[in-house]
Write a structure and sequence with these properties.
The chain is 71% helix and 0% strand. By secondary structure, the protein is an all-alpha fold. The protein has a single domain, classed as Winged helix-like DNA-binding domain superfamily/Winged helix DNA-binding domain (Arc Repressor Mutant, subunit A, Orthogonal Bundle), CATH 1.10.10. Helix 1 packs across helix 2, helix 1 crosses helix 6 and helix 2 crosses helix 4.
């Protein structure tokens, strides 16, 4: 799963030199394992990710928004393809994490119920 998350981010143009890269990898993994985590993203994703990476949850969200901005500028067509519908505006951080998690689930054949 870690490799699929990494490959997906790289396909979007996000590499390990971005602060949000590692944070996004952890956040996506949490959502892959529990698709209901996005219902309360701060409690179920940002705070646990911050605890794992020893930073604060505001940093996690800010860095993920920075990654989204880059993807939106550099690879909008692939992001829309991954979303499965045309995107008129950049996705929110929660939508972005969910899109990547869904892509990883489908790629890895993970069925979370």
């Amino acid at each position: 799963m870690k490799q699929t998350i990494s490959q997906t981010l790289r396909a979007l143009g996000i590499t390990a030199n971005y602060r949000g890269y590692r944070q996004l990898c952890v956040a996506v993994k949490l959502v892959v394992l529990d698709e209901d985590a996005t219902i309360s993203v701060k409690k179920n994703v940002y705070i646990p990710t911050a605890e794992i990476l020893h930073c604060n949850h505001q940093t996690i969200e800010r860095n993920i928004r920075t990654v989204i901005d880059r993807v939106w500028r550099m690879n909008r067509p692939y992001l829309s393809e991954m979303a499965g519908y045309p995107l008129d505006d950049p996705p929110t951080a929660t939508e972005f994490i969910d899109m990547i998690a869904n892509h990883v689930r489908c790629t890895c054949g993970i069925n979370v119920t």
